[in-house]
Design a protein that fits this description.
263 residues, alpha/beta, Rossmann fold, five-stranded parallel beta sheet, 9 strands, 44% helix, 16% strand, kinase activity, Kinase
């Protein structure tokens, strides 16, 4: 992890020195890639250097359960499941990033995945602003929309059986092409943790869920998890194809999450 966190902290610190204002670093990584751990460790390193830094997760901006249920009723049933573009409060995410660059204080939204709902505001962390560096991490941070023709064929059984007309994936793609791009345009740099393949991502996420079951007795079964991850498959595969060529820094990971020595 040090082989990623140390260089990432150095990049962020240099950029802060050059720009002389709050720096927003996007950190994109598939489920199980270690992005949350890397973001938190990088923030600690930056603070050790005397900089104020905050790690912000796209996951904490999921729409409340009731809002997703409304979307599911009005647009498509698959939007009840958190994850893909269209299931986040993009306006709140943008406002939070903007507030982190302005003088004052901000309460950072937080999401309870076990409850599948936003935490009460009283449980949000409050930080003084502006901060020097924000590490904004998420599984699709910085992603771009696919071309329309790419949506024609389903990528898995979920799309084939539950989105036969393509309305769900078209909605997700349109959200990514619209409000999400406006959100991501705020980023000064984009870093990608590049997984070897979607199949490895599935193995990582399965490992995470099994550890959760062992620790808490809760969590999804392997079959439930496979269906859940199917919501992420199309965009995860597209990110692994499209993003490496344009990210400011691409860190290639092996199946054990070790970075490639040349990166």
């Amino acid at each position: 992890m040090d082989r990623v966190c140390e260089p990432l902290a150095s990049r962020a610190a240099r950029l802060r020195q050059v720009k002389r204002k709050t720096v927003l670093i996007g950190l994109c990584g598939a489920q199980g890639s270690g992005k949350s751990t890397i973001a938190a460790a990088t923030v600690r390193l930056l603070r050790d250097r005397g900089l104020s830094a905050v790690a912000l997760s796209l996951d904490d901006f999921y729409l409340p359960k009731a809002a997703r249920e409304t979307l599911a009723a009005k647009v498509h049933p698959l939007l009840a499941t958190r994850g893909p573009p269209g299931t986040h409060d993009v306006a709140l995410a943008g406002a939070s990033l903007d507030q982190l660059r302005s003088a004052g204080r901000i309460a950072l939204p937080a999401f309870d995945k076990a409850a599948d709902n936003r935490k009460p505001r009283a449980q949000w962390e409050t930080v003084a602003t502006p901060v020097d560096v924000v590490i904004f991490e998420g599984w699709c941070v910085g992603a771009r929309a696919q071309g329309g023709s790419a949506l024609a064929e389903p990528v898995n059984d979920l799309e084939r059986d539950e989105d036969a007309q393509g309305r769900w994936r078209a909605y997700v793609n349109a959200q990514l092409d619209g409000p999400y791009q406006t959100l991501f345009e705020r980023l000064h740099e984009l870093v990608l943790l590049e997984a070897p393949s979607f199949e490895v991502v599935l193995a990582w996420r399965t490992e995470q869920e099994r550890k959760l079951r062992e620790r808490t007795g809760g969590g999804m079964s392997d079959a439930e998890l496979a269906r859940f991850i199917a919501h992420y498959e199309r965009l995860t595969r597209w990110i692994l194809t499209e993003m490496p060529g344009r990210a400011n820094w691409t860190v290639r990971l092996d199946a054990d999450r070790n970075p490639h020595p040349d990166d």
